[in-house]
């Protein structure tokens, strides 16, 4: 195919799926796919999308110096866009701030038609917001307001996906969603997922454009092949990202739909790897940082003193001798010289895995790499968790914590004797893929404690972005909380890149 295959990206978030597709072929010649329109409702994710759309206006190796100056904080964004007005105009046209389900459908339809410009061979990517389908989200929402949960519009946002399928009929679509969708019920007896599969096969019972034939899509999993034409089980659509080279145990539903009139052969499955990529192989090269201190004076010396005070705590004396000795040894390595990071840090990075994917030498450092502040008690819990995990090869449950180290609130006391939220403080394990990075990382760092006790902190935005496989020159707009939220909601670009290879092969074979 001479021209890049158009992509329409809906519910785009910060652009993880789009980045994976756009990157295919771009490092060698010209990209095999090109995003024509990305639609996102969140203001800050949209800013991120627009900046990345601007970046993609330039050929590989020809990214202007001013782009890196902006990422380093040397110029403002207005100045960056002023220097490149044509590329900015194109980026602004590509990234659209709009909320599907609330924006007028006629306007949505016209924007997509304009973006496609008569092209019939194209790909739709994206997935509806997933909070209403996630297990924790359902539990919380039902408890707080069952009436509101039952009527949450996010249950029905996939209907917007269906409408776009029916109206525009892409050659292929890629739909992503959370694993919790498998157990979601529309009613007590009806499986939400099975209803969605049925709808995706025949979107809105539409007729294929220019024919009297029913629009039909054949659905495929990328992790399992159907045997003898039998329907796949819902669980067969789950992709376990760590099995495909992503340094994160992220389990998500991925559905590939191929329009029946172009279907010739089944898509290939994603290729599994023999050895999983551990967290330290992709974040271990980043600058070491200390966390901040909340509610008291924050200096490197005060931070060190706050951690060193562990040795004088009553809970410390109640721990086992072996664990106490391990903590004493780790305390000796807590230094005074660490900073909290910053908007940009000049630094030479060299991850053990995927260096060519992550590193851009022109950047000359690390963006979005600064730490949160934590209260002293949480620093003690983080330190205990990291040392416990290093010694035992697994994170501690609340039931493993010394009683005096448990949070004061009632839920924590109950959780220490029950299974629900017993892993409230979850340290990442050196030598293994990380746990799933989700949007909750924007709330606090308790589920994302760094494995190195000498840093005694939660993960930074850039570390979370590395686990999501975003390149280092992918900049997240907004404040730190907004950046975390974007990263947690994204599809790993490297996984999307692998999916794009499969989709491209299907389109080539359909000719």
Sum this structure up briefly.
This protein has 511 residues and is of the alpha/beta class. The protein has helices spanning 16-23, 43-55, 65-71, 77-83, 85-94, 105-116, 135-144, 146-150, 158-168, 192-201, 280-283, 300-308, 314-317, 321-331, 355-358, 376-392, 410-415, 461-467, 480-489, 493-509, and strands spanning 5-10, 33-40, 95-97, 123-126, 172-178, 217-220, 238-240, 251-259, 292-293, 341-346, 365-370, 373-374. Strand 1 (5-10), helix 1 and strand 2 (33-40) form a beta-alpha-beta unit.
Question: Which properties best describe this structure?
Answer:
511 residues; alpha/beta; two-stranded parallel sheet; 36% helix; 12% strand
Report on the structure:
The chain starts with a strand and ends with a helix. The chain has helices at residues 16-23, 43-55, 65-71, 77-83, 85-94, 105-116, 135-144, 146-150, 158-168, 192-201, 280-283, 300-308, 314-317, 321-331, 355-358, 376-392, 410-415, 461-467, 480-489, 493-509, and strands spanning 5-10, 33-40, 95-97, 123-126, 172-178, 217-220, 238-240, 251-259, 292-293, 341-346, 365-370, 373-374. Helices cover 36% and strands 12% of the residues. The protein is globular and about 80 Å long. It has 511 residues and is an alpha/beta fold.
């Amino acid at each position: 195919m001479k021209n890049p295959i158009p992509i329409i990206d809906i519910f785009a978030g910060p652009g993880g799926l789009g980045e994976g597709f756009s990157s295919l072929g771009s490092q060698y010649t010209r990209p095999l796919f090109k995003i024509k329109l990305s639609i996102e409702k969140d203001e800050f994710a949209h800013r991120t999308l627009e900046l990345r759309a601007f970046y993609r206006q330039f050929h590989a190796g020809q990214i202007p110096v001013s782009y890196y100056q902006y990422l380093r904080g040397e110029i403002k964004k207005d100045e960056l866009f002023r220097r490149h007005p044509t590329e900015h105009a194109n980026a602004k046209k590509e990234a659209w701030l709009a909320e599907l389900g609330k924006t007028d459908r006629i306007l949505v339809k016209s924007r997509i038609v304009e973006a496609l410009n008569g092209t019939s061979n194209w790909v739709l990517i994206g997935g509806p917001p997933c909070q209403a389908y996630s297990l924790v989200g359902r539990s919380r929402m039902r408890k707080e307001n069952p009436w509101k949960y039952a009527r949450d519009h996010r249950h029905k946002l996939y209907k917007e996906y269906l409408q776009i399928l029916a109206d525009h009929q892409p050659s292929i679509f890629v739909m992503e969603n959370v694993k919790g969708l498998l157990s979601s019920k529309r009613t007590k007896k009806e499986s939400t997922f099975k209803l969605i599969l049925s709808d995706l096969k025949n979107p809105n019972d539409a007729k294929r454009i220019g024919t009297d034939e029913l629009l039909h899509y054949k659905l495929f999993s990328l992790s399992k092949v159907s045997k003898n034409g039998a329907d796949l089980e819902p669980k067969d659509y789950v992709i376990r990202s760590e099995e495909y080279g992503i340094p994160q145990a992220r389990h998500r539903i991925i559905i590939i739909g191929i329009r029946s009139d172009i279907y010739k052969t089944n898509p290939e499955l994603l290729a599994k790897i023999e050895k999983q990529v551990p967290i330290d192989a992709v974040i271990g090269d980043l600058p070491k940082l200390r966390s901040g201190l909340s509610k008291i004076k924050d200096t490197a010396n005060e931070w060190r003193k706050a951690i060193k005070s562990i040795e004088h705590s009553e809970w410390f004396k109640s721990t086992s001798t072996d664990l106490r000795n391990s903590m004493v040894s780790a305390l000796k390595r807590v230094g005074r010289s660490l900073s909290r990071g910053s908007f940009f840090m000049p630094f030479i990075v060299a991850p053990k895995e995927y260096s060519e994917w992550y590193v851009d030498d022109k950047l000359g450092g690390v963006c979005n790499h600064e730490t949160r502040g934590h209260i002293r008690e949480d620093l003690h819990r983080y330190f205990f968790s990291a040392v416990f995990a290093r010694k035992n090869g697994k994170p501690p449950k609340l039931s493993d914590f010394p009683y005096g180290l448990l949070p004061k609130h009632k839920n924590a006391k109950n959780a220490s004797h029950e299974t629900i939220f017993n892993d409230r403080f979850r340290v990442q394990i050196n030598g293994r893929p990380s746990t799933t990075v989700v949007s909750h990382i924007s709330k606090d760092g308790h589920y994302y404690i760094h494995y190195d006790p000498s840093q005694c902190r939660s993960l930074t935005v850039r570390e979370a972005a590395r686990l999501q496989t975003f390149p280092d020159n992918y900049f997240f707009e907004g404040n730190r909380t907004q950046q975390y939220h974007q990263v947690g909601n994204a599809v790993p670009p490297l996984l999307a890149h692998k999916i794009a290879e499969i989709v491209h092969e299907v389109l080539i074979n359909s000719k």
